[in-house]
């Protein structure tokens, strides 16, 4: 008995809003099954994962530290995804931004160059990410290649490039042969917001990005052209919006924000350049963007939820000896559940009676 | 209502729908609709767009399942779970939109639809057979991509006939045909019914229904209205049944003087994009302020290419090839052309003229963003946008549910009124409209034509591209014909005839100077 998906014409806003919550609940159920299968009490595991981090000021700060890059990258991705351009390579743009920005920190290292270094690093990081993002945009516009594949492939190029740099030319000569750069000077690191903990200025920049993005996407002709291009490309051409310019624009914006997140992370909590500078922020931000319904404010909430899985995952590693992969499983389940919930809300499954032969 | 079911006394009802009801959410698309088709008759299904014709047909062939009511086949209840079953039982449908692969030959396309593995050679022979028997003129080994729309339709009909159907359903078959092609289709239909097959002929062209059909079932607003003998009805009495009221005719009152040329097309050439014959060759056209010029022609002869060249979606290299209000505009994009006070209405409402999944108010912005009133310094002024939106809705009587629904939720007629209103309120000096009333109910169509006439009277130049010859004869001042990428010189409507235009549509060498027609048949499909 075959099943058929039918598009529903009248989808209420309430149902659309509830879909992400439904996805969260489903993810928790899958998580519970997983914990039981691993031989853990699911209630205790959930406590460590999702409640524990909220009870401690240090972990609360960490929550914001982790949510910062997610919401910054996710906000940029909202530009792409609204335009129906599937940038999967934010992780690569994040790395590219980190590398380009760090270059300045390394060449000014030990020179006491002055307070302009950090702002210049941030600008360069954003430019680096934007340039890296423009590569798949160019390939799509010029050759029609799938930006999904090219942007993803460029992630590995960027990561391996970073790996080469920190093991080769940029390796700290006094670093006991560890693959990492020198620790950045004080004028090349993000200022802390509190005396204790790691909360740094990056979150303010991220929130500025959210406010600006909310305005641009919701109130300006640029936002309208992005939305229209994604929703009805032929109507957008008829309206006089150049599809190529929109493609370049959204990749530049999302690349810039990912790159900015990358240099902030390196100049902030990490403090120098290492082979691994991201626990998959660029990929997790995709989930944040989708979970947040491609709206900057929704992405803030989604980023906090996802940051919680990072912090809880770290806690569970320590107290329950659960591998960090469990966090990845959580995040992956959540993405699948969101996408499935979206389909279920917008479409109706209908059972087709009887036989259907070819 | 069930009691409206036609008399069941005649035993030869081949396929019968009894009290079929189908709901889509709050909308009742079919409300206890009944219809009986007898062997050997051509039965018309008449109704406006949105009357529920398509829904009824889909239920009769198994594409949709009724919520209540039943189908009788040879007098016995039957359920068609899917179209394959109905086809196997002898109910064939030719839909308006063909399901053919351009890259394959006719015989390959037909083979794809058949179960089993018949050698192509024997299948081709069967096709030839069928073609000769019914006078369909289809060459089995030609690639579908090279065929005209009429030929493609014949391929679909042949495909149906190979299944030896007892009932053949034709969904608006003549909407894509030239008058000549329609005539040959009618001959085929007569041959089919002569063999005792039943044909359900869906149309809103009243003249052809009166000529061809033995009985007609009229639907309005999803309800069965009447079953009549079309031969004893007049076009206007049928129109009244369909619409439920008298249909106003568009007044043709050319009392104003023609002014400056607003659109000049000089030797416009556009290369085709390969497979389709959509190239344009040496198009020349002049439209002056105050006149309406129509372009007739069968779809696929370059009209879309012409529209896109005029609207600026596909600018042309020769700047002088298109002159809008004295400004050379060939290389300009849509926004720049709108800045010259030109307005454009494409054929496709959903996806081209409007974004289906965006709110109607946001769709206002689609063509007004360059006008300066609503968008300033890149910022959208929502209150100005809403004011314009409400003005369009009010002045053009756009009806919909809710406050500001997505464009896709509007009916064809209301969305078209919106799209036309959006341009008219921009105060253009030139309006180019592609298929102004395609798929629009008669009342909305009349309103749209009147609106365009009024704009012309105010000094706007109007270009109307349409496949509906009756419409062009009714409300344009001059008519040109497009065929295979060439445009004949426009001829005043009073000096031409359906026959002359029909010949030119078929590509006959007329030079566009066909002026011999004795009568200008302005008799539209909707009234007499």
Automatic annotation (TrEMBL), chain A:
Coiled coil: none annotated. It is found in: Cell membrane. Keywords: Cell membrane, Membrane, Sugar transport, Transmembrane, Transmembrane helix, Transport. It is a multi-pass membrane protein. Its main location: membrane. Pfam families: BPD_transp_2. The chain crosses the membrane at residues 12-38, 58-81, 93-110, 116-139, 203-226, 246-268, 280-309, 329-347. This is Simple sugar transport system permease protein. It comes from Ancylobacter amanitiformis. The lineage of its organism: Bacteria, Pseudomonadati, Pseudomonadota, Alphaproteobacteria, Hyphomicrobiales.
Automatic annotation (TrEMBL), chain B:
Residues 516-528 have a biased composition (Low complexity). Residues 15-246, 265-509 form the ABC transporter domain. InterPro entries: AAA+_ATPase (IPR003593), ABC_carbohydrate_import_ATPase (IPR050107), ABC_transporter-like_ATP-bd (IPR003439), ABC_transporter-like_CS (IPR017871), P-loop_NTPase (IPR027417). Residues 507-528 are annotated as: Disordered. Keywords: ATP-binding, Nucleotide-binding, Sugar transport, Transport. The keyword Nucleotide-binding applies. PROSITE patterns: ABC_TRANSPORTER_1, ABC_TRANSPORTER_2. The keyword Transport applies. GO terms for molecular function: ATP binding. Pfam families: ABC_tran. Belongs to the ABC transporter superfamily. This is Simple sugar transport system ATP-binding protein. The lineage of its organism: Bacteria, Pseudomonadati, Pseudomonadota, Alphaproteobacteria, Hyphomicrobiales.
């Amino acid at each position: 008995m075959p099943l058929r998906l039918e598009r529903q014409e009248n989808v209420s806003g309430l149902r659309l809003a509830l879909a992400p919550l439904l996805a969260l609940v489903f993810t928790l159920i899958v998580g519970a099954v997983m914990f039981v299968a691993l031989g853990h009490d699911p209630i205790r595991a959930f406590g460590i994962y999702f409640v524990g981090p909220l009870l401690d000021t240090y972990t609360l700060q960490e929550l914001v530290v982790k949510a910062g890059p997610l919401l910054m990258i996710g906000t940029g991705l909202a530009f792409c995804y609204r335009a129906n351009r599937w940038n999967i390579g934010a992780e690569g743009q994040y790395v590219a931004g980190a590398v380009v920005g760090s270059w300045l920190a390394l060449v000014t290292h030990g020179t006491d160059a002055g307070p302009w270094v950090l702002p210049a690093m941030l600008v360069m990081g954003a430019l680096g990410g934007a340039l890296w993002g423009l590569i798949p945009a160019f390939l799509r516009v010029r050759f029609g290649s799938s930006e999904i594949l090219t942007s993803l492939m460029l992630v590995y190029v960027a990561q391996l490039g970073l790996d080469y740099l920190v093991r080769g030319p940029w390796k700290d000569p006094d670093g006991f042969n560890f693959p990492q750069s020198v620790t950045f000077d004080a004028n090349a690191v993000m200022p802390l917001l509190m005396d204790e903990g790691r909360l740094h200025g990056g979150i303010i920049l991220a929130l500025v990005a959210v406010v600006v993005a909310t305005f641009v996407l919701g109130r300006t002709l640029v936002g309208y052209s992005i939305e229209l291009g994604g929703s009805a490309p032929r109507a957008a051409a008829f309206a006089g919006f150049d599809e190529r310019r929109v493609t370049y624009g959204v990749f530049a914006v999302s690349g810039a924000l990912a790159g900015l997140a990358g240099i902030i992370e390196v100049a902030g909590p990490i403090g120098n350049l290492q082979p691994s500078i991201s626990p998959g922020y660029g990929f997790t931000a995709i989930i944040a963007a989708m979970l947040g319904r491609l709206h900057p404010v929704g992405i803030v909430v989604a980023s906090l939820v996802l940051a919680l899985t990072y912090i809880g995952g770290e806690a569970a590693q320590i107290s329950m000896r659960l591998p960090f992969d469990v966090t990845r499983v959580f995040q992956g389940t959540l993405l699948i559940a969101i996408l499935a919930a979206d389909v279920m809300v917008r479409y109706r499954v209908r059972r087709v009676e009887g036989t259907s032969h070819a | 209502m069930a009691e409206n079911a036609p008399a069941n006394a005649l035993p030869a009802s081949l396929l019968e729908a009894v009290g079929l009801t189908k709901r889509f959410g709050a909308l009742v698309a079919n409300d206890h609709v009944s219809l009986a088709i007898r062997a050997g008759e051509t039965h018309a299904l008449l109704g406006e767009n949105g009357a529920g014709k398509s829904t009824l047909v889909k239920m009769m062939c198994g594409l949709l399942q009724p919520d209540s009511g039943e189908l009788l086949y040879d007098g016995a209840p039957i359920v068609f779970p899917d179209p394959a079953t109905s086809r196997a039982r002898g109910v064939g449908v030719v839909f308006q939109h063909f399901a053919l692969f351009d890259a394959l030959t006719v015989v390959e396309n037909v083979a794809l639809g058949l179960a089993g593995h018949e050698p192509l050679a024997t299948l081709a022979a069967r096709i030839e057979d069928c073609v000769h028997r019914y006078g369909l003129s289809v060459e089995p080994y030609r690639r579908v991509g090279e065929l005209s729309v009429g030929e493609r339709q014949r391929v679909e009909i042949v495909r149906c006939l190979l299944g030896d159907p007892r009932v053949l359903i034709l969904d608006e078959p003549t909407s894509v045909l030239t008058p000549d092609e329609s005539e040959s289709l009618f001959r085929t239909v007569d041959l089919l019914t002569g063999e005792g097959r039943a044909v359900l002929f869906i149309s809103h062209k009243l003249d052809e229904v009166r000529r061809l059909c033995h009985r007609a079932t009229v639907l309005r607003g999803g309800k069965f209205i009447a079953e009549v003998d079309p031969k004893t009805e007049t076009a206007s009495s049928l129109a009244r049944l369909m619409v439920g009221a008298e249909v106003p005719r568009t007044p043709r009152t050319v009392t104003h003087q023609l002014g400056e040329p607003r659109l000049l097309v000089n030797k416009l050439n556009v290369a085709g994009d390969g497979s389709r014959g959509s190239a344009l060759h040496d198009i020349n056209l002049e439209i002056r302020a105050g006149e309406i010029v129509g372009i007739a022609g069968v779809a696929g002869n370059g009209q879309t290419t012409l529209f896109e060249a005029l609207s600026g979606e596909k600018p042309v290299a020769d700047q002088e090839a298109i002159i809008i209000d004295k400004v050379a505009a060939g290389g300009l994009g849509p926004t720049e052309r709108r800045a010259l006070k030109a307005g454009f209405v494409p054929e496709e409402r959903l996806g081209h003229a409007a974004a289906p999944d965006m709110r109607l108010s946001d769709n206002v912005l689609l063509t007004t963003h360059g006008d300066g009133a609503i968008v300033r310094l890149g910022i959208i002024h929502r209150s100005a946008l809403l004011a314009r939106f409400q003005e369009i809705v009010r002045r053009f009587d756009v009806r919909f549910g809710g406050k500001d629904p997505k464009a896709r939720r509007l009916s064809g007629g209301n969305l078209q009124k919106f799209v036309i209103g959006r341009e008219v309120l921009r105060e253009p000096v030139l309006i180019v409209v592609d298929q102004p009333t395609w798929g629009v109910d008669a009342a909305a169509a009349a309103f749209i034509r009147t609106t365009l006439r009024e704009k012309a009277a105010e000094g706007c130049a109007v270009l109307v591209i349409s496949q509906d010859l009756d419409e062009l004869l009714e409300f344009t001042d001059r008519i040109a014909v497009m065929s295979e990428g060439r445009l004949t010189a426009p001829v005043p409507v009073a000096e031409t005839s359906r026959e002359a235009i029909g010949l030119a549509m078929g590509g006959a060498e007329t030079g566009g100077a066909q002026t011999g027609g004795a009568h200008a048949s302005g008799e539209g499909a909707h009234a007499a």
